[in-house]
Amino acid sequence: MGGARRPAFWSRRAWLGAGLAVPFGAAALLGPRVRGALLGAAGLGDGRIETPRGGGFPRTLVDPVGGRRQLPAPPRRIASTYLAADEILAALVPAARLAAVSAFADEPSVSNVAGFFPRGLPRVRAQVEAILAVQPDLVCVAGYSDPDGLRLEIGAGLPVLRWSRFDCFADVLANVRLLGAATGADAAAEALAASVERQLAALQARLAGVAPVRALYLDPPDFSAGAGTLIDEMLTRAGAVNVARQARLDGAGPISVEAALGLDPDVLVVAAWPGAPPPLEALRAAPLWRELRAVGAGDLVTVPGAWSGDVSHHAAKAPAAIARALHPARFA
User: What is residue 92's predicted lDDT score, i.e. its pLDDT?
Assistant: First the structure.
């Protein structure tokens, strides 16, 4: 990707890797900013919503430090500070109920809701001052959010709803339901989550009995994922065997060319990004990567990075797209 899009691209990777196990490969180290965020987040918990019998309001929000905040009515000034929340809220509540969305909401390379929110709606990057300025009655944050800023927001009396688990589709849908409960959009959230569950179940039925393909995920130039990641589940649901998991590699992060050569996948599943060179062309031009058997044979499956790198309901598009490429006979 070009330099202008790199910040959004790497932020997407940062929250994708949040909470995962130690990355792998000869160069497998998450960046210091991500490591610091993970270490600094120690002691902060995920939020939950306590709903009274009958399902109305007021409701109680349990914040990241265990404090209890009352939501007297469905929030009308919601500040979303991470892209997955932008995407989920776009499906649950009218845009008029948003006081701010993340700065990545309009980034076409990573966002599934680019152009959805009004131009006049503030875009924020989780800075405390910017969030306080929009006077929110609910702040949605991710597990990698700056812990010091998060504590300042809580100390200022803001109702903060935190979610940190993005390691599987069950985690993603739990976040959909949590945001639904926090905003009073319970029915819409349940319908959205159930729709994803039906999509995944239908894909499983369609692929019943297929011979799994040995695959390795690659987000150029060198990002991959092993066990304990949403990408691993995407590959499995697409009728593939993740060779990184087979090799007992855990988590998400950079992978060395040497490690990829050792895994020798039959297929590379590569994230494609707008404006980037065609993945096969780029890999064949790269030293060592062109030595990979799958690259030499042209056995690449591309999937939009905005799907494979997603942790909202849009992530369900990725396994379906991968499955169509790996097992076209099942979709004829």
Answer: 98
Residues 6+ apart with CB under 8 A from 318: 234, 238, 303, 304, 307, 308, 310
* CA-angle at 93, arms to 46 and 116, nearest 5°: 105
Cβ atoms < 10 Å from Cβ of 82: 26
Which one-letter DSSP state was computed for residue 331? G
Q: Rounded to an integer, what distance in angstroms lies between the CA atom of residue 216 and that of residue 264?
A: 9
Q: Parallel, antiparallel, or unpaired for β 48-50 and 98-102?
A: unpaired
Q: Could you give all domains of the chain from N- to C-terminal order, each with its CATH number?
A: 42-163+165-199 (3.40.50.1980), 208-331 (3.40.50.1980)
177 SS3 class: helix
- What is the Cα–Cα distance from 218 to 210, expressed in whole angstroms? 23
What are the tokens at 84?
């997955």
The amino acid at residue 82 is: Y
Query: For residue 121, what pLDDT is reported?
Result: 98
Any residues with CB less than 8 A from the CB of 204 and at least 6 apart, and which?
Answer: 237
Q: What CA–CA distance (Å, rounded) separates 76 from 243?
A: 46
Residues 6+ apart with CB under 8 A from 110: 8, 9, 12, 83, 104, 305, 306, 309
Nearest 5 degrees, angle CA 85-CA 165-CA 175?
40
Alpha-carbon gap, residue 16 to 217, rounded angstroms: 14
Note the pLDDT of residue 144. 83
Q: What is the CA radius of gyration of the chain?
A: 20
Query: What are the residue ranges in the chain where pLDDT is below 70?
Result: 1-42
Q: Which helix (H) or strand (E) holds 98?
A: strand 98-102
Q: Is 254 exposed, middle or buried (0-12, 13-18, 19+ CB in 10 A)?
A: buried
**Distance (Å, whole) CA 130 – CA 146:** 14
Can you tell me the distance from the alpha carbon of 8 to that of 14, in angstroms, rounded to the nearest whole number?
Answer: 10
DSSP calls for 63-110: -TTS-EEEE-SS-SSEEE-SHHHHHHHHHHS-GGGEEEEETTTT-TTT
- In the chain, what's the furthest Cα-to-Cα distance? 62
- Is the bond preceding 58 in cis, omega lying within 30 degrees of 0? yes
